[in-house]
């Protein structure tokens, strides 16, 4: 009977299992994008596209397969992602409780989906980030002392991270100070040439453009595209931007448009 049971279970698995999900530097459920016929950056902002990247949780909430069950609206999924990044309690409750004292682990969890932070395997932060804050465990050493972790490319978590970082009730400087503390105590690799600082500056310049604009109804706010000119104007000092502004007005031969009017989009580093 036991062998018969195993045979039946194996047959069910062979005929009805879901396609594998690749989590790493590629999106999950990539084969499902064919029906969307994506061709522009604007298409990539469509919720059905945006929530298909990353772990399957987001897409399953957007488009459940249980009969007539209605899926989550986009902003509810963003809210859930924000809840996950602060340890599981609702973001509103967490903000009331922790906004004046953010821990190192919470700061690393908030910045992690965007900043590509390298957590030292021997660090005390690694197990906590995996167990409570959405970070992946890649490997555990035989003696259980080293835990190799990673944060895959997940636009949903990157958007949630951006919204927390730019919340007017949250002091970004406090989050950055905790990141600095983690660098000083050796729990995080800072990079040999200031890579972490460079990433933070680029993201801050990107966010500052959209902080001035109203968020769309989908709440997919910081994951939209912008022109190269808008980004460089935010990133550079005024005198530095003036030096290159004439080059940005040059027309690109094969498009006929100004170089500075080219669209760019990025939300996180990998």
Automatic annotation (TrEMBL):
Source taxon at top rank: Eukaryota
Descriptive protein name: 17563_t:CDS:1
């Amino acid at each position: 009977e036991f062998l018969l049971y195993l045979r039946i279970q194996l047959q069910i698995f062979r005929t009805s299992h879901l396609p594998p999900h690749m989590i790493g530097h590629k999106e999950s459920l990539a084969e499902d994008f064919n029906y969307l016929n994506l061709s522009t950056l604007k298409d990539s902002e469509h919720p059905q596209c945006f929530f298909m990247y990353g772990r399957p949780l987001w897409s399953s909430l957007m488009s459940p397969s249980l009969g007539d069950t209605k899926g989550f609206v986009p902003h509810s999924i963003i809210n859930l992602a924000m809840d996950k990044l602060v340890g599981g309690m609702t973001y509103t409750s967490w903000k009331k409780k922790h906004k004046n004292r953010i821990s190192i682990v919470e700061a690393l969890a908030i910045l992690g989906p965007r900043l590509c932070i390298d957590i030292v395997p021997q660090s005390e932060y690694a197990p906590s980030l995996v167990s409570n804050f959405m970070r992946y465990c890649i490997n555990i050493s035989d003696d259980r002392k080293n835990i190799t972790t990673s944060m895959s490319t997940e636009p949903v978590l990157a958007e949630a991270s951006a919204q927390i970082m730019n919340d007017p009730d949250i002091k970004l400087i406090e989050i950055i100070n905790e990141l600095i503390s983690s660098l000083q105590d050796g729990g995080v690799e800072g990079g040999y040439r200031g890579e972490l600082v460079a990433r933070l500056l680029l993201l801050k310049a990107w966010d500052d453009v959209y902080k001035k604009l109203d968020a769309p109804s989908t709440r997919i706010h910081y994951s939209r595209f912008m022109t190269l000119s808008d980004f460089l104007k935010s990133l550079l000092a005024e005198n530095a931007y003036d030096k290159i502004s004439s080059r940005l007005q040059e027309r690109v031969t094969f498009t006929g448009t100004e170089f500075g009017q080219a669209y760019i989009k990025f939300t996180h580093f990998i």
